[in-house]
Protein 1
Amino acid sequence: MSKSLLGHRMSLATLGVFATFIFAVAIAQAEEIVALGALDVAVTLPPGWTGTIERKEHEPANPGYNTQLKAKCETENCETSLDTCSLWVFDEVSRHRTARSVLDAGRDQYEFTRTALIHSGPDASVAKHIEFETLGKSRWYVVETRASGRYKSVLRAETIIEGRHLVAECRTCSRDYDRFDASRELLSSVVIGKDH
Amino acid sequence: MDLQSANSAVEFDASFRTEDYAALTLQMADRRDIKRWRFLQVAMLVFIVPVAAVATLAFLWVVDSQRVPFSDAILFLPKLLWDELLIPWLLFCAFAILEMLRYRSNIRARVGRLAGGVNLTFETNHFRIDDRGVEVTRPYVISRYEWPAIRSVEETDNHLFLRNHQLAAIIIPKRDLTSETVESVKMRISAHVQESPRS
């Protein structure tokens, strides 16, 4: 075998190994579409996130939030921030079609904020007052808290998409301004039915 | 019936109906200071409702062991008041204003209910007004008021009120009296009472 032919084959092999490596990395970093198995709700996890679905038994006489997606960030950046997100789906399709009717009242918004603060631990404060925010194709009521000490800050969000009532709570130890960007990306990816 | 005696006195009969007993209360209610007080009462009630609502919310916030920090909780206050208080408060304001406007008819209605709900002639009083004072004769009762007891006189379209007390007066309905008799009565009263209506 001549030198040039050997060199050519070596180049091809190197190229092949490199391409395989790149492909493997791409697969590892790919976004994962997770169907929650309830009311055709699906979510696309951001790169580096994993998710598990928990489902309690649904009692028709007593519907509740019995389907839960627990997502967790596994990237290097999340080794200190420990980002997690939980997404609950209500068992039944709501008669309300939009989120406006769910948390429009002042007392409901106050209770929503209060719950987020309770889940943020003692001495937590509101980092971002409750707002009707656009995430992806949908609008969510979102509130952010700032925890103190070793507790996690919370982003609590609630919406109704095509009658599906969703509540999300994302947590992080990070104190950065953009600490909930990945959480928002996750919530933006929520779709219903055949869109995914 | 209307009687007139000689120069020293005037005598006449006057019938009393339910509306005559309400007349004094209405006369008092029409005084400027009473009207002003009634208006202030309504205004206080109207404005005390939102104040009470805010105080209630503040109390509920204080007793909540897991309350939202004050600097954040205060931001909810306008929306809470708008959502929960606005319509009930407007209804309350409308009711209070309506009651204030219906004050006179309410008094007439209440007195009418006390009287059995009809505006009948209750009794006929005989009046004698002379140099000594005013004598009122009712069945089994004779009341004599000497002039120093009469503090002032007030006149409306339908009544003369001879005030003997801040809260009481001798009521003379003009319904059964001729205009000459009314003038004669007023003339005799003005001769003895400082604050009296002039012809």
Note: DSSP finds four helices and ten strands in chain A.
Protein 2
Amino acid sequence: MRLAQLVLALSAIAFVVVLVVSMRVRVDADVHDHYMAALQRLQSLDARVNETVLRGRLGITRSFDPLATMMRDTSAVHVELATVPSFVSSDDRAAVLVSIRESSTFQKARQRNVERFEAEDAALAASIHILAPETTALADRVDGVGGRVLADATRTLRVELLEFAAAREAGHIAAIDAAISSLRAESARWPNENDRASAELLISHVTKVTQRRLRVDALTREIVTEEAMNRALAIESAYTRGVDASRDTWARCVLAMSGLAIAMLMSASAYVVSRLRASAADLRTASSRLSSALFLLQEERAEEKALVELKNRFVAMTSHEFRTPLSVISSSAELLQHYSERWTQEKRGEHLERIRRSVTTMTAMLDRVLLIKKAEAGMLEFRPAVVALDRLLVEIALAIEQHKGTQRRIALDIDPSVGSCLADEQLVRHMIENLLSNALKYSPESEPVHLRASRDQDDLLIAVQDHGIGIPEPDRPRLFDGFHRAPNALHISGTGLGLAVVKRAAELHGGGIEFTSEIGQGTTFVARIRAEKRPE
Amino acid sequence: MFLSRSYILFLIVVGACSSRRDTEASGSRDTNASSSKTNHESALSDADFSPLPPREPLDAHKVALGRKLFDDVALSEDRSVACVTCHLRDFGYSNGLPRASLPTRELGEVNVPTVLNVSYNYRYNWDGRFETIEALIHAIIKKSSVMRSSWEVIVPRLSADATYRAAFSAAYPEGIQPASITNALVTYIRSLTTPGARFDRWLSGDKNALSDEEHAGYLLFRSYGCSSCHQGRNLGGNLIQRFGIMNDYFADRGYPTPADRGLARVTEDPQDEHFFRVPSLRNVERTAPYFHDGTAATLDDAVRVMGRYQLGRELSELERSRLVAFLKTLTGDLDDGALK
């Protein structure tokens, strides 16, 4: 599952990368609050400066300590704001710094204006302080000594000044100048030097007041604007933009990380599943191999068992079959040993014949065993030659009849089409002898045995039919196995080898052997051999 | 603008009554205002005056180190000048002379200002060009008529001294650096405050702190408008004002010097011509002679000049003596061990 692994690896790397990016843009709440607090302080300082300047202009504020502190704090806040939090991207940070610089520059100019305002206002206040008592004192003084006109001029000046103070219009200055001129004129006529000095003092202060009042107002208008607040707000909006952008990026990073996490999870599980499947497949393969190995083992065991059984049957059979001839040999030999001198030649010959026949029987049995061994080992030789099969069959039947030495008859029915063919005479002889002797063996004397031969195109069919005991159903499958004796045939001597050889012989001829049987009715064996008809 | 009939009336009333009413009401107003103040920086009121707060707690190591530096000639290039050489403790941290006079330096341009209570000022130097004490120190280090040195010389020089190394490493993690040297000096200077002046006690409610003459002087100080510029906690130090408002001081005095230009020397703004930082009047009794040119030898001279050029008044002898009596009540506790 290379694909799953690749996806997993790529997703993991991408996840880490996005994580790193997200850490950089993560908006730290404390830092953000701190910065916003500094921005708030800047705005509130600006408002307070405006308020203090206005109060100064109204004459309420007499000390300049608060203003000086505020201006100093404003500079300090700008320095503090210049450290923009790191979660703001560099582009946004540049914008914030630009707006801070603009605000700072503006504030410096504002500070100069404030200081000028303070200076003008202080001097103005000093002049005002002097004017009121001085005017009243002078007016009262000269009034008391007949200087009514001078006193009036003084008072007029005062009134004009007050009106100017109220209206703040430059247009009023003309009236003030007029009042000054008249006071000066009157004062020049007044004899008292001190009073004249007082009048001059008044005039100089009034002049200053008119100038300063206008300048203070102008400075106030310069200072108390929304400009400073606008610039402070500009810093705030630049910063807020940066924070929002960072928050957006952060949200996108979180989204991406979630997606990547899902991808990682899925690819990891796909990988795990594929591994599991592979293991399961391996397991299945191993399991099936195991079961087939087990099966083979079982087959081998069965074979082994069959072989053991075969061996047992062989042993049982041979010991049983050999015992009879051997006991005959033993008894005859013993009798000869004891009684041969007293017996007639004929008697002796009889026993010797018995011994000889027993030996022959045992030899034949051994031959058959060897033959079956050969047959099973596939060593049975097939030497085909042209054989006159019809004459052979007759010959075999007659030989059997004579050998058995009974009244048993073999009924022959040989089709003329049988003729000659290519066959192994020995094997055919063996085959037919076996079938016939079996038929005779397993059927009662009263019943005949039929031998039929016919041709079915290139095959020859040789049937041997008996009316004997029949072959029980359970034994039929194993009929052609070596050493098999059906239970109902145990009382009849036989090795149980014959049919195996018959089958092999038929097979060697390119054919086979079949049978039909019925218990108590009889059995018919049909050997089919391939035998092309040959001309005689 | 803010003009309505009632407002005009209000202004007229205020204008008419301000001076007379002020003098009567000022006492109680000041008491109310001053008693509400406790902290160093906060609660700065807009009343004319306020007493100096008690000395703020400062790091003792740094103060001691700063004092050592203040007295050390190592800060000057040729090891002939220390801060204390001109800012003598016995002369109210000035030198009792019209200008700075040192054998190894050219004659100073201006009178030596005091170092007392400067932490309550908002501008430093006669021309008010510095906004922080640190900036002033940085300039003084380099000034050829003062230290004539540089940090590149001073830092290795101090670093070679084991006592300094130990003292700095105890007080400053960064060790001997321009910033830490400056900070030590500034910390020491901030410790040089003089609370406890009789005027301050009067402001705080002790009505017996001022004699009748002194009180009369105080009233004149206010009604003549001296308090317009010499106001605040420090009775000055927070304002830049023209020297010669009503008359031309420099024209009358003659022999103009570059220092006479005041702030305009720095800003080259004609509006700033002859503008000076208003000095604090605290401890003024101890810091004769007066003005940037040191031409007023006595307080009486100074008051006369101020009256003529700032208020346009020729003050009488009686007025002057009363004002001088009041000014003498501004002397704080100078016998504190820290100031000796």
Note: The beta strands of chain B are 240-242, 275-277.
